[in-house]
Amino acid sequence: MRSGEQTRENIIRQAAALFNQQGFAGASMSDIMQATGLQKGGIYRHFESKEALALEAFDYAVAQMAARFTEALEGRENAVDRLHAVVDVFARLHDDPPVPGGCPMLNTAVESDDGNPALRGRARAAMDGLRTLVRQTVRKGVPRGEVRADVDGDELGSLLISTLEGGVALSRLYGDGVHLQRAADAMRRYLDERVRA
């Protein structure tokens, strides 16, 4: 990797942590300069604007989450076991986030709800990917006899994501991972009692 590419990757990595912890509005260019050790011109040599950097930083953060999901799903064939793997990834977010600050999808969705349509669109696309994963897992699991026939994949996706993201939010708010662990434990029970065939 060339020096310019390394510098660009470092800016993205540092900015991802800042934006995930402080938000787009809360992380100033001065914060980014301090984290990267670069002057403003050095940052703008690689990114045309703070928003352009924020979009790439979000994509980086989501890629880190996606890598966690890929690793957790590897070798798991049973649909409910795959859903448990998704829960397990979320359960680690308080103590071991892939990017400091918790779930980048949740943080970006909340912050950009009204103020930043581009980031909101990226957050929605990332969340769509997670919802699709749950929906397709259920769709494949029903005919194989792994998932109950009356389970609606879209409904389960809403329930699973909102429960786990709510646990992430409470744990971040109170600085205590117990809230996320309670949400994860409840979702694990739900999967075993209401989803598993």
Compute the average pLDDT: 93
How would you classify the quaternary structure? single chain
| H-E order | HHHHHHHHH
Q: Hey, roughly how much beta strand do the residues contain?
A: under 5%
Form type: elongated
Low-confidence stretches: none
Find the count of extended strands (DSSP E, 2+ residues). 0
Largest sheet: none
CATH architecture of one domain: Orthogonal Bundle
CATH fold-type name of one domain? Tetracycline Repressor, domain 2
User: What is the first-to-last residue Cα distance?
Assistant: 49 Å
Radius of gyration: 18 Å
Structure commentary:
The chain is mostly helical and 197 residues long. It has a domain at 59-195: Tetracycline Repressor, domain 2 (Orthogonal Bundle). Helices cover 75% and strands 0% of the residues. The protein has nine helices and no strands. It has helices at 3-26, 29-36, 40-44, 50-73, 79-91, 104-111, 117-141, 153-174, 178-195. α1 packs across α4 and α4 (50-73) packs parallel to α7 (117-141). The model has no long low-confidence stretch (mean pLDDT 93).
